[in-house]
Every structure is written in structure tokens, then in C-alpha cells.
Amino acid sequence: MLNDLWYKNAIIYCLSVGTFMDANGDGIGDFAGLMRRLDYLQGLGITAIWLMPIQPSPGRDNGYDVSDYYNVDPKYGTLGDFAEFTHACAERGLRVIIDLVVNHTSDQHPWFKEARSDPDSKYRDWYVWADKKPPDATHGVAFPGVQKSTWSFDKRARRWYFHRFYDFQPDLNTSNPHVQAELLKIMGFWIQLGVSGFRMDAVPFVIATKGPKVREPVEQYEMLRSFREFLQWREGDAIILAEANVLPDTDLEYFGEEGERLPMMFNFQLNQNTFYTLATGDTKPLKHALLATKPRPPSAQWGVFLRNHDELDLGRLTPEQRAAVFAAFGPEPGMQLYQRGIRRRLAPMLAGDRRHLELAYSLMLSLPGTPVFRYGDEIGMGDDLRRPERACARTPMQWSTEPQGGFTKHTRPPVSVISGGPYGFERVNVATQRRDPNSLLNWMERMIRMRKEVPEISWGDFEVLRTSRSDVLALCYHWRNNSVLFLHNFAAKACTVKFRSGCNEPVGCPLINLLSDDHSQPGDDGRHAVVLEPYGYRWYRVGGLDYLLTRSEI
Ligand code: GLC
Ligand code: CA
């Protein structure tokens, strides 16, 4: 199906196989375990799974250091298990995308081993070398405070090699046509095994010029078109979801003016400003980010997220804004990372306040784009700040009150489940929340179901409505003669917000609440006045009740 834009109205769930469910009791999650949990995921309502790196790796950067692109890490299972997994997903109508990490390899990859030891090897030019230490070797490190430089000396090659990330992740020379051809082959391989696309790691670096003489890297955007074309020739509806933390003025370079490059990108701009607004109640920068990232080709889509497996990167905020987010959500140095971010999970950042959490997820589900959840978000999992860097928020999924949260039968898995305290598995787990109709898990399931029934968010045009309050965001979407309207109160205080509904009627339209019976009628002046609770939110359909009925037939 060439034109099936399934990703436009999808619900993506990101997980790492190693921390999700362990079936064989060796303490490491595996495909067999994950397969036992597919019905859980389907029940939650998600429509696509994003698997973090699954390929063989020495595991020094959570698998983002690949040593073989054509296999599954044996600790997770075999390629056979993987094919079973994609089949089991397809049976349930779930799509699978996997991480594609091709900016760099592991230094244990046979290509790098050969490249460093044999100057005549064809792999020598697959990496980026310098005879002398480049003068700007300390510039542009990806992990400030932990990573010292972007060039390291290799004793074997007696040359310097370039690495944007850690020194065990040598950058591939992505300008080399042989490397580019290999990259396509890797995509083709996994497509053949049933994936619907890739979350592409570090895209701006993949396409940047690299080398000792490169002072200001230049993005070679046309490379993105070649990836896209290849994918679509092989599998019409396959996608790339790009990790590209870039400024809005280059968004269209990434998407392509006609949508001929990347179908999807994470909206980092929106992400950072969302956190600023959550921290301060000031919606202005969030509105600004919404409008700045509005232009995109019709086939393209944003990935909208709150937290991911990395630190919450606040590098694009002003120093004052960043300080405000740090003060609210990560005041202690141990909560911060790389001089720019916060490494905690969302629930502890919001002090476990259910109202604030609901506000945040209601917002994520109603921002323009496809929502991307992180495993454990749905039950409000916490973090373990004793673990280093980003590892604090990568602990095993908490399934039940059994030992190790039901994640494994092993008594001492390499990564322990969070235990004790407000976020320990004893209190926060799937089994307990499943039984409680008011749990976060059941709330999330209802919200996800509702989100899927409001395709206007994914397909429509949005307007930021003017309201009487700066701490309330009012968003209205229009699509195929339907309109939906969302209110979010970022303040910890109740308020009355006044606004026009965004319909064309001068007298205003009624607003039908999608989540409760509390509808809203316009006043004589055509304006609505809605009383919102502290951190209150509303999902409305614009128009009479009959609208509601006709909509559901679509
Ligand atoms: C991306 C990943 C991150 C990883 C880095 C290097 O930013 O999200 O986890 O460390 O790339 O591959
Ligand atoms: Ca296992």
C-alpha cells in the first residue's frame, strides 16, 4: 500500500528488549518475554512499537554501539525469534520500528578492527581519520562533562579517528558511497524481516560533512532523500522517524519541501518548551514553538514526546528558561546531566502529582503529531539516581509485586528493578494498577483510545486560540468540517478561562466534552467561560451533540 500514511495517526511505544520482560530467567529481557507482553501492549491501545537497539553490541552505550548490523544480540534471542516477534505483532495489527544507529559503529565492529589494523583495507575509508590531532578536537562533544574530545588517537592505526559521541563509537564516513550503499542494505535487510521502519539515530550528524578540515559541518540533506526513496521502493509505507534536535528554520530541509525526505522527526523544540511551560505556567514560549514548527508537508508528521531514554535536553532554551526548569524539576546537581539536561523520569519530576501528570500526558496526546510513549510511563515509573548518567531512567519494567517486579525470575539481574520508596515495584506496577479503575494505567488506556478517535489532531490544521489567561493553552484543530478543542491549565490554581471556540458562527458553538458530561455553551457575547481545576484539562468537540454521533460513524 503505497499511500498508507499509518504513522500520521499512530501511538508509538518505545521499549528496550533487555529491560522489558525476561522469559528464560537469566536476568536480561528477551524476545520470548516481550512476546508474552504483546497482548498487554495491544490492550493499552498503542499501534506501533519502537525497539531500542537490538543488534549485537558490547553494550557500552545501551546498544547504541553496534558491532553487527545483520543480527540480533544473542542475549535477546535469535533472528528466528525476531521474525516470530514481527509476525506476532503483525497478527495484532502492531507495527514495529527499530533503532538504526549508523552515524557510528562500535570500536569492536569488524569494519573498524580491519580499518585500524590494515591501511590498505577497503574499510579504512569507512571511518574518519586525521594524521595529526585536529586543533578543535575538544569542540562539539555530545556528552559534555563526560566525553573529553571528538578525536582520539588509535595506537594501531597511528592516526586520530573522529567520534562525535564516546571514543568507543568511531564515526562512519557517511560521505563514502560504499558506506551509503551498506546503509541501504541494512535497511533492506530489516524491512525484509518485517519492520515498518526505523528510528534513525543522530540524523544531523549522519548527514554532516566530517573530517579534520571540517570547521563547520555542512548537512548533506539530499542523502535523506536517497534513504527515503530506497525504503519506499522496497516497502511503500515504511518510515524513518528521525532523531534530529534542530532549529525550526531547518525543519523543511529535513522533511523536504514536498515531503520527499524524512516522513517523521521528533519535535525537540516543542518538547523543551513544553517542559518550560510545565515548570512555570507561562504558555508563551510553547505557543511560539507550536507556530514555529507548524510548517510541514502534508505527508510529514512530528513525533511528540515528553521523556525518552536520554536526558531531557534543555539546550535550546535560554539560560534563564533552563534555570527555571532545573529549579522546578531537577534542582540537585545529581539530577542534571551534560550541563544541559535532566536525567529523571517524568513522574518523579512532577513529584508524583497525579493532576500534573495527567495534564502533561493529556497535552502530549493533543499536540500536533504522533505521540511517542516510553515504557513504564503508563504506570508512572520512577528512576534510580544511583545509576550513572542516563542509566537511571532505564530500569526494568515493573509488572507486579513479585520479586524483581515480575520482570525476571533471576534474583540478581544486571539491572535491578526499582524497589522501595514511592516508585518501587511494590507500589508502582502493572498488576496492581490493572485492578484499579482509577489508576494511571487505566486513565492512560482511556486517553489513548480517545486520542485514536480524534484523527483531527494528526491530520488537521491547528490554531492557537486567544484566551483570557496566559497560563492556559487553547488549541483548536480543524479537519474535514470537524473541529476539536483542547484546554490545558498549567497553573496549580483553579481559574476561569474565556475564549471564542474557533468556529465560524458569530454566536459561537457549543463545546461537547469528550471525557465527561461537563459541556460548555457560549455566552451572549459568543465567548465561552470554562472553570478549570488546578492543572485541569478539557477535550471538546466543537458543535452540537449530533456532531458527536455523526463523527463516530466515520
Ligand atoms: C542518540 C541516542 C543516545 C545515544 C547517542 C549515540 O542520541 O538517543 O542514547 O547515546 O545517539 O548513539
Ligand atoms: Ca533472558
From TrEMBL:
InterPro entries from the UniProt entry: GH, GH13_cat_dom, Glyco_hydro_b, O16G_dom_2, SupH-like_C
One Pfam family cited in the UniProt record for this chain: SupH-like_C
Record's protein name: Alpha amylase catalytic region
SUPFAM superfamilies: (Trans)glycosidases, Glycosyl hydrolase domain
Organism taxonomic ancestry: Bacteria, Pseudomonadati, Pseudomonadota, Betaproteobacteria, Burkholderiales
GO biological process: carbohydrate metabolic process
Domain annotation Glycosyl hydrolase family 13 catalytic: ranges: 14-412
